[in-house]
From TrEMBL:
Belongs to the methyltransferase superfamily. It comes from Geopseudomonas guangdongensis. InterPro entries: BioC, Malonyl-ACP_OMT, Methyltransf_11, SAM-dependent_MTases_sf. Residues 53-146 form the Methyltransferase type domain. Converts the free carboxyl group of a malonyl-thioester to its methyl ester by transfer of a methyl group from S-adenosyl-L-methionine (SAM). It allows to synthesize pimeloyl-ACP via the fatty acid synthetic pathway. It is an enzyme of class 2 (transferase). Keywords: Biotin biosynthesis, Methyltransferase, S-adenosyl-L-methionine, Transferase. SUPFAM superfamilies: S-adenosyl-L-methionine-dependent methyltransferases (SSF53335). This is Malonyl-[acyl-carrier protein] O-methyltransferase. It catalyses: malonyl-[ACP] + S-adenosyl-L-methionine = malonyl-[ACP] methyl ester + S-adenosyl-L-homocysteine. NCBIfam families: BioC. Pathway: Cofactor biosynthesis; biotin biosynthesis. GO terms for biological process: biotin biosynthetic process; methylation. Its EC number is 2.1.1.197.
């Protein structure tokens, strides 16, 4: 099974966007912290790695968490965004900081006991290649633990834009069923694969869009409209999104996928 081409953004754009967001990312990363902490809690209790990888390491928050959890181990932070690595390196955590692509990992075969990746793999167009590389890099008994996003993420924003025009304004994500099929076919044992809906609330639409931009996760899809968004369309978007407001504010849904796979 292969992922549809032309649906996810170009990796150069992803790398550039997250590099620009390195300084602002941690200030708005509430969801990312919560999801990564949950992924850490889902690691197998018998896992004691000698070497781990933080794949899509970003600002290095979870590299430092992995170093604290496994003080005996050597860690490698891998990210496609050079700006994130420059930001993370002085903060420590990992022993090595490597610029690399999850679909073509610059790591030796059977060299690591844990690949940890939180909210990064949704940007990879070929998830089968990601899984194949994880299988190659993991030592026997090694674990791939990942969190990602699937269909249902930012559904309120997507629905509001659909009421305004026909352009792609919200990042597209795979279906959970596609994650399941690809994981089951990859040659790794599926220990756990689950999905969880998380909802954040915002005072207004501007707060949400500011946060997405600060994260580097604003619209990067092919088919997005070029140029500035007109004021009339923005007003129409605000009015459409207001239909979703509840007693806590404007909701934004995130459909999170958690996967734990082990190499036999």
């Amino acid at each position: 099974m292969t992922d549809p081409q032309g649906v996810l953004p170009d990796k150069r754009q992803v790398a550039a966007s997250f590099s620009r967001a390195a300084a602002s990312y941690d200030s708005v990363a509430e969801l990312q912290r919560a999801v990564g902490a949950e992924l850490l809690a889902r690691l197998p209790g018998d896992l004691v790695p000698d070497r781990w990888v933080d794949l899509g390491s970003g600002t290095g928050h979870f590299s430092r968490a992995l170093a604290a959890r496994f003080p005996q181990a050597s860690g490698t932070a891998v990210d496609i965004a050079e700006g994130m690595l420059r930001h993370a390196r002085p903060l420590g955590g990992a022993s090595r900081f490597v610029c690399g692509d999850a679909e073509r990992l610059p790591l030796a075969t059977a060299s690591h006991d844990l690949i940890f990746s939180s909210l990064a793999l949704q940007w990879c167009a070929d998830f089968a290649a990601v899984l194949a590389e994880a299988r190659r890099v993991l030592a026997p008994g090694g674990v791939l633990a990942f969190s990602s996003l699937c269909v249902g993420t930012l559904q309120e924003l997507q629905g509001s834009w659909q009421a305004v025009d026909g352009f792609v304004h919200v990042n597209r994500f795979r279906r959970f069923e596609d994650y399941r099929a690809l994981c089951e076919a990859c040659g790794l044992e599926v220990v756990e694969l689950a999905t969880e809906r998380r909802v954040l609330h915002y005072a207004d639409l501007r707060q949400l869009t500011h946060e997405l931009k600060a994260l580097g996760a604003h619209n990067l899809n092919p088919g997005r409209p070029g140029g500035l968004t007109g004021r009339a369309r923005v007003r129409a978007l605000v009015e459409a999104y207001e239909r979703f407001r509840d007693e806590h504010g404007l909701p934004a849904s995130w459909q999170v996928v958690y996967g734990v796979l082990r190499r036999a």
